[in-house]
Specification:
This protein has a two-stranded antiparallel ribbon with strand order 1-2. The longest helix is centred in the middle third of the chain and has 29 residues, at 142-170. Helix 6 (115-136) runs antiparallel to helix 7 (142-170). It is 68% helix and 2% strand. The chain is globular, with a radius of gyration of 21 Å. By secondary structure, the chain is an all-alpha fold. Strand 1 and strand 2 form a beta hairpin. The protein contains 13 helices and 2 strands. Benzoyl coenzyme A (BYC) binds at residues 33-34, 37-38, 41-42, 45, 72, 103, 105-106, 125-126, 129, 132, 193-197, 202-205, 208, 214, 218, 268. The site of benzoyl coenzyme A has 28 residues, from helix 2, helix 6 and helix 9.
Length: 310
């Protein structure tokens, strides 16, 4: 069998493609793009929540939030490692992020204005991420699929901690309930945009589905998320900022109004509320950390020389 035939057979059999296997260049490039974008999202995604660590209302909430933000860093690192198996270096990927040549999820360009935003990010943003990532556990590239299994376990804790914050606020004072509703009003639509453009507008879906990189389309995942989330919001006594939201008895699914795609594309193209600030913070952290990387490299170098001379 040629490498190409072997690749086709692996995809058809729903087996995993592994780093040393032959793969089409387009498959490799698509994976690098998507996995890098996913890794960058985890790393940039630390900023909106990290912003609240010093202001968490109790010591317990602070400890939980710190653990969650650390988990995001870990997810980013697994994902960079998965991307590295495709022949790109972590330094290259950092450079592509810092120079705006690779993307990260649109959602992290919105500000976190109140403590309720931290609850709503866990509930809606991690909730949307899990729906997407559960499907990606079945992706055809082995290292990416295996990273997803671990990430999904942690992500489900994140979603629950977010919902627990929302529940506490929903059972709190009128001001707390209003703060929660305000956060939902601001985060609902951006959460739905996380799933990407409608299938008909999605550049990569067809090819990515054929290669089984993507297992479920953007719209299907979005609908699944909406069906799962609307009853959770109703349980909290919340409304969603969509006058057209209604349960469609015929389809058995929730129907929504139009998504503002102009807003989505503006954010994706770098013109969201905080795009510039997020990248500036990231570049500063990278520059400030140069001495740590140098020290780690010098330490590793010294130990490999000691090992050689022993
Ligand atoms: N934001 O052809 P399409 C987390 C771009 S973080 C920005 O449908 P694809 C968390 C897309 O790249 C979890 N750009 O693309 C962390 C493409 O542009 P290019 C993040 C977007 O790739 C901290 C163009 O639009 N999860 O959980 O087939 C705290 C056309 O789109 C977005 C992932 O990254 C967007 N939302 O499908 C809390 C999941 N959507 O590249 C939580 C992995 C689309 O051609 N990624 N674009 O210039 C995926 O599953 C897929 O890449 C997507 C898009 C479903 C997002």
């Amino acid at each position: 069998m040629t490498g190409e035939e072997q690749f086709e057979a692996t995809i058809q059999a729903d087996d995993k493609v592994e780093p040393r296997d032959w793969m089409p260049e387009g498959y490799r490039k698509t994976l690098v793009r998507q996995i890098a974008q996913h890794a960058h999202s985890e790393i940039i995604g630390m900023q909106p929540e990290g912003n609240w660590i010093t202001r968490a209302p109790t010591l317990m909430r602070k400890a939980i939030l710190m653990a969650k933000v650390q988990d995001e860093a870990g997810h980013g690192l697994y994902l960079y490692s998965a991307a590295e198996t495709l022949g790109v270096s972590r330094d290259e990927l950092q450079h592509l992020l810092h120079t705006g040549k690779q993307k990260y999820s649109s959602i992290f360009n919105y500000p976190t204005l109140s403590w309720a935003d931290i609850g709503v990010i866990g509930w809606l943003v991690d909730g949307a991420a899990i729906v997407n990532q559960i499907a990606l556990q079945g992706t055809s590239y082995g290292p990416y699929a295996r990273a997803m299994v671990r990430i999904c376990k942690e992500e489900s804790f994140h979603q629950r901690q977010g919902y627990a914050i929302c529940l506490a606020l929903a059972q709190g004072s009128e001001e707390q309930q209003a703060m929660l509703q305000d956060a939902v009003n601001r985060w609902w639509w951006p959460s739905l945009m996380m799933f990407g453009p409608h299938d008909a507008e999605s550049t990569h879906t067809e090819e990515s589905m054929a290669w089984k990189i993507k297992r479920v389309s953007n719209d299907e995942l979005r609908h699944h998320f909406i069906d799962q989330t609307v009853p959770q919001g109703q349980y909290l006594g919340l409304t969603f900022p969509d006058p057209d939201l209604r349960f469609d008895e015929e389809t058995g699914h929730w129907a929504i109004g139009d998504i503002d795609w102009d807003e989505f594309w503006a954010v994706v193209k770098g013109n969201g509320p905080l795009n510039r600030e997020r990248i500036a913070n990231k570049v500063k952290a990278w520059d400030d950390g140069a001495w740590v990387r140098q020290a780690a490299a010098a330490y590793a170098d010294k130990h490999s020389r000691l090992a050689e001379s022993a």
